[in-house]
Design goal:
globular; Rossmann fold; binds zinc ion; four-stranded parallel β-sheet; 10 helices; alpha/beta; three-stranded antiparallel β-sheet; about 280 residues
């Protein structure tokens, strides 16, 4: 007498009684008809899935001959397990490690300007290097995935430090709605969503907004940059950030004027605390 899902039955498989449970190691040949059908269906489904996976791999390999996946930084062919940036580039990324250092140069940018709890930037932005290309691909070449991926990597490191892991929510520096419509996305929001995913914190994009459309900050003096963004941000539904520690996220910090303006606006609300994280420092 052996068992299957439907109960005990003889080795001939002709008689069985309902009630007892099936042991998973039961050979299929001893199963009753409904179980046999079920086992057959499962193994067929398994074979079908592995067949589809194999086909996908073959198609991927075929297309990679014509459209190889390239590293967004150095342009080298990516290995199958690599995503967007090759292992070598990630290993050689000129990281600041500022998130582990108090009173670091990013925090010093805000001294006497805005009361920032903690601030950091992930890597040094140096013009015409392969690492500057990461930012360029994200901002001007529509490579949205790289913002999310770099955010994920950055977020995993921020999570390891108590100074950053105590934040309650993440807010990206907003673009003016007209600019966002034109570009199709907000690069800071992509980085913030990657950070949020790794840190397990919520990302909030509907509270802080840019009320005034401004000219680009590039090629402006420090003073003009500040005047250009002074009082241009607003907060709606302020009660949602009362007493919260906010992590403000941007792509690159240069003079810090935009981040200072955002932070000043957020700090006007009840009992808020603001920290800053940017992907790079120029
Ligand atoms: Zn590379």
């Amino acid at each position: 007498m052996v068992s299957c899902i439907h109960g005990d039955f003889s080795s001939t498989g002709r008689t069985y009684t309902k009630g007892s449970s099936c042991s998973s190691s039961q050979p299929v040949s001893f199963a009753c008809f409904p179980c046999k059908l079920f086992y057959n269906y499962l193994s067929l489904l398994n074979r079908f899935i592995s067949y589809i996976m194999q086909m996908v791999r073959i198609i991927e390999d075929f297309f990679s001959l014509f459209y190889p996946k390239l590293c967004a930084a150095c342009g080298a062919h990516l290995l199958q397990q690599e995503e967007l940036v090759c292992t070598q580039c990630l290993y050689n990324l000129p990281k600041t490690n500022y998130h582990r250092i108090e009173e670091n140069p990013v925090e010093q940018v805000f001294w006497g300007r805005a009361k920032i709890a903690a601030a950091t930037a992930y890597f040094f932005f140096e013009k015409d290097t392969r690492f500057a290309k990461i930012i360029h691909q994200l901002k001007y070449r529509g490579m949205k995935e790289i913002g999310i991926e770099m955010g994920r990597i950055f977020g995993a490191e921020l999570k390891e430090t108590s100074r950053f892991n105590e934040v309650d929510l993440i807010i990206p520096v907003p673009l003016h709605w007209k600019k966002q419509k034109k570009r199709g996305y907000n690069q800071s929001e992509l980085i913030a969503s990657g950070i949020a995913e790794s840190m397990g914190k919520p990302i909030v994009t509907n509270i802080l907004y840019r009320a005034v459309e401004t000219e680009t900050q590039t090629r402006k003096s420090r003073y003009k940059r500040w005047k250009n963004v002074e009082n241009i941000f607003r907060v709606r539904s302020a009660d949602k950030i009362t007493g919260k520690h906010i992590l403000l996220v941007d792509d690159v910090i240069t003079t810090g004027s935009t981040l200072e303006s955002c932070a000043t606006t957020l700090l006007k609300e009840n009992n808020t605390k603001v920290s800053v994280a940017t992907l790079a420092i120029a």
